[in-house]
Amino acid sequence: MSRMSVTIADIEKLATLSRISLTPEEKEKMRGEFDSILEYVAAINKIAEHTEKDARSIVATVNVLREDTEPHESGIYTGTLLSAAPKREGNYVKVKKIL
Amino acid sequence: MIDPSSLTIKDAHDALMRGDFTVLELVQACLKRIEEKNKELNAYLEVYANVLEQAKAADLKLKNLRAAQRAQLSNLFGVPIALKDNILVKGERASASSRILEGYIAPYDATVVRKLKEAGAILLGRTNMDEFAMGSSTETSAFGSTKNPYDTSRVPGGSSGGAAAAVVAGMALGALGTDTAGSVRQPASFCGLVGVKNTYGSISRSGLIAMGNSLDIAGPIAKTVEDAEILFDCVKGRDPLDSTSVELPRLPIGGQATTHDSACQSAGRQQPTTKLKVGVPRNFLEMKGIDADVLENFNQSIERLKALGCTITDISLPTVPHSLAVYYVVMPAELSTNLSRFDGVKYGLYREGESLLGDYLQTRTGGFGKEARRRLLLGAFVLSSGYYDAYYRKAINVRIQIEREFAAAFEEVDVIATPTTPTPAFKLGEKMTDPLSMYVADIFTIVANMGAIPAISIPSGYAHREGKRLPLGLQLMAAYGNDRRLFMLGTLFESAQQ
Asked: Within a domain: residue A38?
C-alpha cells in the first residue's frame, strides 16, 4: 500500500478531534514526525496480507464484560468524586453554557 | 547501620522478625537516602506525609503480636515500598507525572495498594515517570527527568524510571511500577534490578491510571527474583473491580507442566540444575541497532543457562519482531481514548477559555506534554473512519498472529530468551529529538505485552562506557500463565552469577 504524506490540514483536523491547539511550528514538526512513524507502522500492511483470516485471539484481544448488576448504594461516592471537580454547584459539576 | 541499597525485602523481613531493627529505623534509613540523593536523582515526586506514622503503627502492631502471630505476617510487613505516580492511594496526590492532573487527590485505593496495605507494607511515596507512562527514559515527565544512579548523565529508563532509581539507590526496598511495553523491565534492566511483567490480567488494573488497557499491568521492581516474587504474590489475583483480571493456576498451564517443574517446586529453591528448553529467536537478534556489548552479554547469559542444564534451541518467530509497529497503532488508539477523560470538568487542571470548547482546548493544550499530544493525534488518526481498516483492524489481526505464534513456540520450548533492551542506558536528551529512536528502546519488551505472556528481566552483567558500569538485563518469557517458571529459572540464573 502506498501512503500519501500527511498534510498540515490533516494535522489540524486531528488536533481539533483531540481538542488541543497547536502552533504553526508544532503542526509542521508533528507532520514530519507523523510521516516517519506511519512509515514505520506501515510494516504491518505486509504482514497482515499473510495473516490467517478470522484467526481467533486466545486472550490478548478478547473483551471481558461483567454483568451490569449489583450496583452500590446510590450516592455513597458522590461527595468524594465531586470534590475533585474544578467547578461545582451543589451536586453538579459546573460547565459553560453550550447553547 | 542499615544499608537499604543492599538490603533485600526478604532479609529486611527476617531482620524485623528477629528484632535486629525496628520498622521506624528501617524507614528512617530510606528517608535518609531520599534526603541525600533525591535532589540529584529526582526519583520521588513526593514522600507521603504519614510515613513515620505508618512505621510507628507497624512497630506497635509487631510489639503486641505473639510469636505464632508474627510468623503469619507477610514478608512485606514493615517493608518500605515506592509506588509509581500512576497508582492511586486514597487521600494522596496522583499525577501520572502530568500537569493535567494538577491538584488531583485519589478518592480510592488501587487494588494493588489495598493489598500492600493489608500486608502491612509501608508506602513511602510516589515516584517519577514518563507522562502517562509514555516513554522509555522518564524524560517526558512534567516534573523533570530522573537520573540513572549508575551514571547521572544517563537515563534510568522508563516509564517507571523513578521507581527503579529509588530501589537501586536504597530509597525504598522495592517498588511497584506499571508495564505497557516494557516500562517495568526496561528501567529495571538499566538500573541493574529485577523487573517483572506478569501474565496479562494476573494483577488487577483497578486504580491504575490507564494508558493502553489491553497491555497495561502493574509490576514489581526489586533487587532479587525472590523479592519480585514476594511483591507479585502480594498484589496478584482476580479482582471483581477489573473484569479482565484472572487467577493464575498453581501449576504452569498453556504448555506441558514438566515433571521438572514439580520436582523443582517440591525441592524449593535449592534445585541446582534445570532441564528446561530455552528458545532463542536469532532472527530477532539480528535486527540492526542492537549494541555489540548487549549481544555479547546475551550470548554469555545463554552459556550460563546451558551450564544450568537448559537445552538451547534456535527458534524462528517471523511475526513477533513486528510487535513494536503493531504497538504504535494499538497503543495510541487506546491511549487517546483514555486521555479524552481529561477535560477540566471532572478533575485535575482547569484553564478557562471563552466557551466550553475553549475550556477544553485551554485545559488540554496547557495540561498535556509533547509526547501526549503526538500520541493523541496518532490515536485520532488510526481510529478515524478513513483509516480504521487500514491501521487499527490490521494491527489487531497481526497482534492475534503474534499471540498465536507465541503459543505455537511454547509448544516447542519452555522459555524464550532475549536481551531486555537493545542498548545499555542512553544519555539524557539523546533520543528526545527523534521519537522513533526512543520507541525502539522497547523492541524486545513490547512483544510480551502484545502476546499477553509473562516476562522477567534479570541483571546479567555490565557494559562499560566512559569509565562507568552500565547494567544489562536478560529477558526470559514463558507461555501464558507460566509465571512461576520464570521466577524459578530466574532464581537459578541469578544464583549462577554470584
From this structure: yes
